[in-house]
Recover the amino acids of this structure.
């Protein structure tokens, strides 16, 4: 009997020690406000701005991370965020607009940098300003401070001191599904400045180079290659397309890679649009026996459009949950 009494006494003393731990596991409920983003919520509450794709991967109701809606409720845990179903809200404490709390500030919109070195797909109706036709002393390649010759002259309106960007024509890109020619992959090489002008030609000096420059390189009107930020922007219409090529040309694509897609301004695509990379899951009908038509799509990651052409665009892979390949689908809405 004495042993049982001692055990009960120890249990009574131990209970208060567990109460605070239980309370700490109880989440705070945050009410989404105008301007909030998954990026901002992840960065503010769990100090991990890269966490947001896990949120939209696990919440089918959320289609765009920059389009969560005021009034939605989020459970805040030390290591994760969870959206609260509409029918269940049991908050320990609610943080919302009108509460005197430092967490009520509107989240900063996430943006992505463009450096001018991402390349693009040159479409059929795109014409370069000129071409490098030779290098001084018949050299094969040129770099900074080397002399080159171009087919741009006074007949083209060229003037001494005028600058041009230099690009290399890479491979012709065919659509991975339809084999349609989407364009020619163009890789930035550097810049040059015209020094001496003839009627149909000119001498120039290479002022900047990131790669070796060879005869046949394209010239295009100069644009200052300062870094600029592309802010997330909601698509004005539903977008569906495919990844047709990558900047690196490698088979496997991952976060941080630049890709080219078959959506451009003609389809309503704009810089800042976020698109989700999805893949259909094959279904073995021998087990389904005709009861199921399709399975939920596999979510692979997301891209943000950096620049658009007429029917193509350059995009940055901002998240990859699994390996991504040319031919994978991109959509603005996950269904």
């Amino acid at each position: 009997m004495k042993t049982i009494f001692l055990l009960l006494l120890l249990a009574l003393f131990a209970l208060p020690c567990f109460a605070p731990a239980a309370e700490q596991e109880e989440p705070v409920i945050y009410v989404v406000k105008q301007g909030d983003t998954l990026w901002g919520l992840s960065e503010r509450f769990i100090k991990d701005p890269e966490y947001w794709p896990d949120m939209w991967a696990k919440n089918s109701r959320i289609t765009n991370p920059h389009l969560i809606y005021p009034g939605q409720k989020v459970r805040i845990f030390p290591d994760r965020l969870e959206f609260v179903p509409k029918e269940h809200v049991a908050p320990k404490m609610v943080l919302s607009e009108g509460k005197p709390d430092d967490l009520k500030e509107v989240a900063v919109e996430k943006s992505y940098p463009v450096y001018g070195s991402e390349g693009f797909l040159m479409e059929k109706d795109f014409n370069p300003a000129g071409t490098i036709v030779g290098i001084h002393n018949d050299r094969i390649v040129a770099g900074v401070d080397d002399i080159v010759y171009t087919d741009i002259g006074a007949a083209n309106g060229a003037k001494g001191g005028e600058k041009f960007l230099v690009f290399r024509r890479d491979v012709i890109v065919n659509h991975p599904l339809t084999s349609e020619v989407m364009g020619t992959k163009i890789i930035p090489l550097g810049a040059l400045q015209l020094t001496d002008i003839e009627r149909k030609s000119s001498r120039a000096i290479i002022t900047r180079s990131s790669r070796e420059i060879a005869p046949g390189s394209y010239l295009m009107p100069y644009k200052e290659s300062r870094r600029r930020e592309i802010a997330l922007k909601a698509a004005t219409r539903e977008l569906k397309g495919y990844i047709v090529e990558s900047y690196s040309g490698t088979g496997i694509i991952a976060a941080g890679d630049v890709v080219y897609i078959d959506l451009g301004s003609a389809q309503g695509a704009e810089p800042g649009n976020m698109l989700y990379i999805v893949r259909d899951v094959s279904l073995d009908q021998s087990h389904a026996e005709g009861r199921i038509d399709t399975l939920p799509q596999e979510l692979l990651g997301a891209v943000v459009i950096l620049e658009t052409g007429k029917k193509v665009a350059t995009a940055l892979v901002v998240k990859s949950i699994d390996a991504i390949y040319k031919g994978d689908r991109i959509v603005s809405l996950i269904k």
Notes: The chain has a mean pLDDT of 79.
